[in-house]
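User: what does the whole thing look like in 3D?
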Amino acid sequence: MEDLSYRHIARQRAGGTRKIAVIGVVASGNLEVLAERNLPDAECLVEIKTAAEGFGEVWNAVIADFVERHSPGGVRFSINDGGARPDTVSLRLAQAARLMQEDDQ
Amino acid sequence: MQTAIAGAATSTRTSWRQGRDARDARLAAAVSLAKGKIVAASDATGLLEAVIRPGDRVCLEGDNQKQADLLSSALLAVDLAKVSGLHMVQSGVVLPEHLDLFERGVAKRLDYAYSGPQSARIATMLFGGKIELGAVHTYLELFARYFIDLTPNVALIAAVSADREGNLYTGPNTEDTPTVVEATAFKDGIVIAQVNEIIDRVPRVDIPGDRVHFVVQADKPFFVEPLFTRDPAAITESQILTAMLAIKGIYAPYGVKRLNHGIGFNTAAIELLLPTYGEKLGLKGKVASHFALNPHPALIPAIESGWVEQIHSFGSEVGMDEYIRARPDVYFTGPDGSLRSNRAFSQVAGLYACDMFIGSTLQIDLQGNSSTVTTSRIAGFGGAPNMGSDARGRRHPSEPWLQAGKEADPDGLAPLRRGRKLVVQIGETFGDKNAPLFVEQLDALALAEKLKLELAPVMIYGDDVTHIVTEEGIANLLLCRDASEREQAIRGVAGYTAVGRARDAAMVGRLRERGVIRRPEDLGIDPFDADRSMLAARSIKDLVHWSGGLYAPPSKFRNW
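Assistant: Here's the predicted 3D structure for the full assembly of 665 residues, as C-alpha cells:
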C-alpha cells in the first residue's frame, strides 16, 4: 500500500450544497471515492490509499487536471484505490464532483 | 543504317491454349479418383497430388470466418515428391494447418491479408525464415491481385452443400468464395470444394456447377470462427464514455447514416447505446441507418428499436442465422431465406458507399498512424485499411463527406473540393494489460526493420485518420493546420500515457478553444451517463431476449 496526498487551490467553490457523497467500489482495477465538503472554499485536498505503488507522478497529473477541469473548491476527496487505470480514476472523480453539485436532500 | 525487318519477330509460342491444355491434363490425372465430380474424403490427398504441381499458386480457402479445414488437412498430408514449394495466396491464415504447410515444406511463399489467431506463430516463422513473404494485403487488394498477378492455379474452397453437377450452396458464410472461384475457374484453374453434404437440389446456387471441378464430402461441417461477438458484460464504463463521445461529438454533428463499425468493445458499446443514449439525443432516423457490417449480435437492440434500415455483410456470424432469416428487411438474403454475404462486394461498399469507419487499434503514433502489430504479433490487415481510408475515386456527394472536406480545406472552392471520409480511431488511453494506446514510435517500424520489409505494416495511415476518440475527448484532425497542431491534438487526448503527459498544455488549451479537442464536459456529457445501466443489453442473455429467442449464441458465450 502507498499513501499519497495532493493539496490544490481551486478556482472556485464546488457548486451545489451536498455535504457528502460516495461513488465506486473497492475492487481490482476500480476505486472508491468519498467526497466531503469540509474545507475552506478555495481549497481542495485529495488523499489516496492505493494498492499499486510507484505511480505518484501519474496520480499527480490526474489530480491536477481534475482540479483544473472541475474546480471542486471546499471538497476533500478520499480515494481507496484497487489499482485502477487513470481513465477510471478520472471518471470516478468527475462523478464524485458531479454528485457534490447536487442540492442536499 | 537500318536493317530491321518490318513485321517484327514471330512468337516462338506453339500454342495459345497451354493453360487450358495443362488444366485438362491435371483433370485427366484425377479422373480415376472421381465419380463424376464427387471424390471420397479418403481420396482427398490423392486428388490434390493429382491436380497440384510443385510451385503452383494455391488458394486454400481460409477466410475471415469459414475454413476449408478438410482440404487443408488433406494438403498437409501430400507426398512431398509430388507436391511442394507452393505459393499460397489466401486471405486468412487462421488454422494451425495453414502454417504447418510451411513447416513441412508443402508451401514456401505466402501472400495473405489476415492472420488473427495465428498472429504470434506467423511472426515467429517469418523471423525464422520458414515463410517467404510476398506481402500482407487488405482483403480487397488481395482479391484484386487474384485477377492480375496472383491468379490461383488451384482453389480449395468450402461450401455447405453441393449437388451432383457441382452447384454449390455456400449458405450464410459465402464470404470470399465467389471471388476466389471467379479468378480461378475463368483462368484455366481447378476448383475443388469441400461440402458438408451432397444433396439432390441445393437451396440456392451460390456458385454455378460449371465452375467447380471436384466436390469432396467432409465428415464434419467446415469450421467457422465466431469473430464478431462481443459480450456486453465485458464493456467498461470508460468504453461507454468513449461511445457517448463518438455518438454526440461525431455521429450527431456530421449526420452519419452510412457506416462501418470495427469489431472492438468501443464500437459494441456504441451499438448498445443507440437505442438508449442515441434515443435520448433524438438521433433515431438521423444517424447509423445503413451499414456495411457483419451481423453483430450487439446491433440487435438497435435493429429491434427501428434504427437500422439495412446491412450488407462480409460474412455471417455464428448463432445469428435464424435472426437474420426473420429480418429480411434488414439483411441481404437469398430465395432460401438465409443470409447472402460477400466479402469483396461488402468491402467495396465500405470503401465507396460509407461515410464513416470507426474502429479500435493497438497503437497510434504522433502523426496519427495506427497499427495492430506488436513486435511479437502480426495479425495482418483484413479489411480495416480499406474501410478506414479515403476513397480517392469517390464522386458522389453526401452531407458528412462534404462537411469533412470543408473542415479539412475551408478556403477551397466548394464545387472543386473533395469530400473526406470520416475515419475514426476509438479506444481508451490504456489498453489491455495497461499498454498505452499512444506511442512515440509504432512497433511496426521495429518489425519492418527486423524482417527487412520495405513497408512497415501500418493499419491506417495518419493522413486518412480524421478523428481520434478516447475517454479524454475527441481530437478532430481535419481542423489541424500543420504537423505540430496535429501532434498536440493527439497528445491532448492521450491522457496519462507518456505521450499525453508530454503535451504542450498551452497549445492544447488553444486547440480546445478552437474545438479541435473536445472534452466530455465541452459536449455536455454527464459522467453519470457513463454507466452500464445505459447499455441496451448488459449480457449475451439480454441480446437473446431482444432477438425474441432467435439469436442462438455459441456455447462459449453462454453462462446460463
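In plain terms: The domain at 2-100 of chain A is CATH 3.30.230 (Ribosomal Protein S5; domain 2). Chain A has two helices and five strands.
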